[in-house]
Amino acid sequence: MAKKIFSGSITVVAVLIVLAAAVRFFGSSAQANAPVGDAAGTYNSKCAKCHGRDGRSKTFWGRRTHSRDFSSGEWQNDVSDERLFNSIGNGKGKMPAYKKSLTENQIDELVSYVRRLRK
Fold it and tell me: Which residues, listed in sequence order, are joined to residue 103 by a DSSP beta bridge?
């Protein structure tokens, strides 16, 4: 009886490991193929806490961390897309790096989204 329970437990663990691997594989694959319109969702989940949904950094965390105001036309004129891409990927100051959690396409989409926050 104990042998059957042990054998059944091993089977359940093996199935869970396979399922976890499949979710990890297909999850990252689905992330890489995320629709272009999902930049707003990515921005809202990763950036809006500090930079605000409107990009003006008027949030509690934005004021506390001195986050960049993305709506500033002067700043938008001075910063290149490459610099934005690198800042998102590598982090800057108190901002975390996102190159391990976002694909290059998602970071490119965020750069375009940040450009649209200009006032």
Answer: none
User: Are 17 and 60 found together in one domain?
Assistant: no
Q: Which DSSP symbol is given to 59?
A: S
Residue type, 50: C
Say if CB 117 and CB 55 are below 8 A apart: yes
Domain match, 85 and 43 both:
yes
Q: What is the pTM of this model?
A: 0.68
Do 49 and 26 belong together in one domain?
no
3-state secondary structure at position 94 = coil
Token pair 């990763």 is at which residue?
46
- What CATH number is associated with residue 68? 1.10.760.10
Which structural domain range is residue 96 located in?
36-119
Q: What are the pLDDT tens digits along the chain (119 aa)? A: 555 555 556 665 555 565 555 555 444 434 444 444 689 999 999 999 999 999 999 999 999 999 999 999 999 999 999 999 999 999 999 999 999 999 999 999 999 999 999 98
